[in-house]
Every structure is written in C-alpha cells, then in structure tokens.
Model the fold of this input.
Amino acid sequence: MSVTGAGTPKVPGSVLADTVLERLTATYAAAADPERAVPMRAYMKDVAPFLGLTTPVRRALSRTVLEGTPRPDEADCAAVALRCWELPEREYQYFAVDYLRRHVRHCTSGFLPVARHLVSTNPWWDTVDALAAHVVGGLVAADPGLRADMDAWVLDEDLWVARTALLHQLCHKERTDTERLFAYCLSQSGHPDFFIRKAIGWCLREYAKTDPEAVRGFLAREKGRFAPLSVREALKNIGA
Done:
C-alpha cells in the first residue's frame, strides 16, 4: 500500500493524548531550567526555544508522565505527536519522538503522512534523524509497499524529507534493500548540502557493518561520484 499525504494532518481525537499532554506540560514546565535552556538553544542553532531539560532528566520525567497509561493505538500516537509539535519548546518534540519510537509497531502505513509532517515541520537533525531511522524505517519494514514512497521522498525538494529517505534503512542491517540504498545515494550524490552529503556517508557506513565488501565495491565502481565528506564517512570503519 502506497500512502502519500499533503498539508497538515488533522489531529485525531484521543482521550489518552488529552491525559498525556496535560501531565506532560505540567511536569516538564515545573522542571524547566531557563539558564540551561540558553546554551541548549544556541547549540541547536536557534531552531526552537528549550525548557532546559537534560536528556536524563527529561526521560525520567517522561516515565512519570506515562506511568499507568495504556498502550496507544495509531490515532493516539498521531494525536500525541501532532500536539507535541504544536508546542514551542523542543523537549516536547523529543518526548513525541521517544513515544513514537516505542509504539511505532502499533501504527500502520497510514501513519506515514503524519511522519512526513513531523519531519518537515520545524526540522533539524535532532528530530529528523530519529524519526527517519526508528519511525519511518519501522513503518517501511512493516509494509514494504512504502518503499515506493521512499523512492519519491529521496528526490524531494525538502532536504529533510530526502535525508529521511536516505536514512530510513539505518537499522535494517541484513534486511537492507541494498539496491535501493545504493540507488538513493547515487541519486543525491551531487547534492550541495552538508546534511545530504553527511547522510549518504552515514547510511553507507552503517550498512558497511553488515556488508563491508559491498560498500567498498560500490564506492570503487562509482569513484568520483561522491563528495569527499560522503566517502570519508562511508569508509570510516572499514578503510578504502
């Protein structure tokens, strides 16, 4: 089943999301550290304001927020994620990413338009990469029919959507569709942006842990097609 979506997905009604968001905003806001938030925002290139919650603190608070809540269905996951994306502080989006990583197995291919919205809204590597590898990648692994969507995404004008397609097989290991992986890398080999060139090297480096000879052979055959950054990243752990 191939799924595409345009525009902003509608936030589903969800009693569970109501409970989670009420707890989440109260718990996170009470623990905010405005002084710590300043360098966190600067480190992330001012992509969003921060509450100033370190990762260990944030995840401990999240466990408190979710204590006793039931397993979500797809509508609950969409409602939680979309509502977190409407909040300004970045930690709420981190909560949503963690929530989806945990529960993506309860989502169908119909969740892909929501994932695309999250990838392309207020994007930066901190949310996009986790969504690519663990959410979009999980959806495609469960429904190979979504590979057709990835074929379109990798050519998208939005570099974060294209990066997501490049990285979506990052955790697939021996289940990697090698032909697509290499084709995607070639399709973006001339891209001028750092984040695409880095993603090419990263996805090849990760697959090299499974099949180093395939990656070496691919780069040897396509010598000169890739930016030095991509090649360095790809060969970092296996050598030329």
